[in-house]
Every structure is written in structure tokens, then in C-alpha cells.
DNA sequence: TCTAAATAGGACCACGTTGTCCAGTATTGG
DNA sequence: CCAATACTGGACAACGTGGTCCTATTTAGA
């Protein structure tokens, strides 16, 4: 239902949000998120174009969030890499349906709207703050770990 | 978000449900639903394997619903051609997440669950019965038309 | 200034989905 | 039995997504 690219983008953003201070390089993020690094670089480029991250070249460079995690929603991330296509006009091109969709497409669009709304109301910060047995991207069960594996 | 195949399958099922008595041939359905007929035949085969429609060969053959429209849900149709993949285990394969997903994947799966639930609670009959300005697959605005274009 | 680190971005390939075409087979009617 | 109808199913082409690789460019620091 969601594309691989969306999954990757969300992982990368969670990774960045979990250590907001230091820039993280493509390969660091790739290691933490288990995303193929060459492909991750494409995804990060899309996120950069959408102004969600900022990439800094050169030694000590890497990526940082372009805004505080509390101000970035899941929907923004999804929209940056693979926007949810709402159904706005009849897919059959029937004149009579135009903007007022028939019950079938109305139902489908309602489902899309629900997803959109759920994603719009969830920020990166909320994801990281949520109490849980497990922490995003982190392989040890208990809390108190900084959500990302600390590099050796 | 939803695949083309899902869209086609739903159209075909609505088409069949709108005239439950007579079998409709592939090309009739294709014309009504504006789906490429060669591809529609693949979709109908999937629906047949899922026991949602029954195909009858030979003269006067065609497809009919295998169950009453009131007993077929949108979810069944979607599942037949392109099942919604719920997130059941951590996509990163992290041991600690196992069944108890981290907040990120929990959120994503909740969105999937919402869609699933919306589709599970909607039947074909409900789609056709719903009052609306426009009728599925039908290009004239007012009700009282049988939801499918009557053949000349 | 030179080198190493790191992003930016283009070219390219593999694969699944979508879509087409064609031969095979069942069914009805004459 | 014959012919027309219509589903069944396999082979194959077009296309977009996911994924790899290689080169150019920027930047920090010795």
C-alpha cells in the first residue's frame, strides 16, 4: 500500500530526528535504517528539495532536519517522496460525476482522506516521544536508548 | 495509493452487481467500465479464482456474481486482486520489535487498518444503494437509471 | 594547496505491474 | 457434427519503481 520509498523516507527522517544536533552522513543513516545507501541518497535528495532536510557537503558534512521535529508531519514526508493521490474527479472521465464523485469513488477517496488526516496529525516528535516497548530503528527493547544506535 | 488493478476490479464488480440477473461478457463489462478488455479478462480471472464471480463459457456465457451483492465487501474484492499488506513484523527485521511494532510502524499499520476496516464494512449493495447525485459507471446525473448504461 | 570526505546528479539495469495478442477449450444452437 | 461465442491461459511488450554505479562538485582541515 505504501511504497518502499515512503518507508525509506520515514526511516531516514526518524533517524535524523533522533539526533537533531549532529549532521549524519548518507552512509551512517543507511546503516542505522538498513536502507540501500545508493538509493537512500536519492530519497534524501527528494527530502532536501522539499525543504525537510538540509544536506551539507564536504568533511563533517551530512544531513540535518531543516525544521524542528515537532513541526514536521508524517504527511509532509510522504508528500515529499510519493504524494497520496486523492480522487478529485471521476477516473472514468464521466461528465456527470465531475467533482461530485459516485459512491464508489467517494468511498475510496474517503479512505485516502482518513490516511491523509492520520498522517497530517502525527509529527516526527510525536513518533519519537510515544511510550512503547520498542524504539524506532533501535534494536534493544527497553527505553532510555536514544532511539538511534550510538555509533561505536 | 490503490493500484490500477484494484480500481478495475471494483468497477467490474459494480458493473456486475448493477444487473445481477444476466451474465455479462468481458467486452460488455469492458465497454461499461472503460477498462482495456484484454486486461480486464485477467482481472476477472483473479476474481473468479477468489470465488467472487463465476465465468460461464460459450454462447450466452459471461460473468455473474458468485454471491449476492449484499454479501460481497469492498475488502474481499481488493483482497482478491491486490491484498492490503498489513505490517505484522518489523520491516527492519529488528528482533526487539517483533510483533510489538515501534511507534513509526504502528502508526503506519493503523492507517492500513483504518482502510481495511472501512472497506470491510462496505458492501457492493451499499455502494449501489447509496443516495447520490451520480450513479457508478453511469454518465447521466439523475438517479432512476439502473447504474449501468442499458445496452442499445 | 592538496587531499579526503561527503553531497549532487546522471546513466543505467532488474523487476513487477500494466497491457496486448494469440491459441486452446468449453458451450450453445442449428 | 459444425460454427459461432466466449472464457482460459500462456507469451510477450511497455513502463515505472527500486536499486546500482560512476563522475562532478563542494568543503574542512592538515
Secondary-structure topology with pairs:
The structure is a homodimer of 152-residue chains.
Chain A: H1 4-17, H2 26-33, H3 37-49, E1 53-56, E2 62-65, H4 74-81, H5 103-120, H6 124-129
Antiparallel strand pairs in A: 1-2
Helix pairs in contact in A: 1-2, 1-3, 1-4, 2-3
The structure holds a DNA duplex (30 and 30 nucleotides).
Outline the structure in words:
Two copies of one chain form a homodimer. With 152 residues, chain A is mainly alpha-helical. Chain A contains six helices and two strands. A two-stranded antiparallel ribbon of chain A has the order 1-2. In chain A, a hairpin with a 5-residue loop joins strand 1 and strand 2 (62-65). The two termini of chain A are 36 Å apart. Chains A and B meet through helix 1 and helix 5 of A and helix 1 and helix 5 of B. The structure holds a DNA duplex (30 and 30 nucleotides).
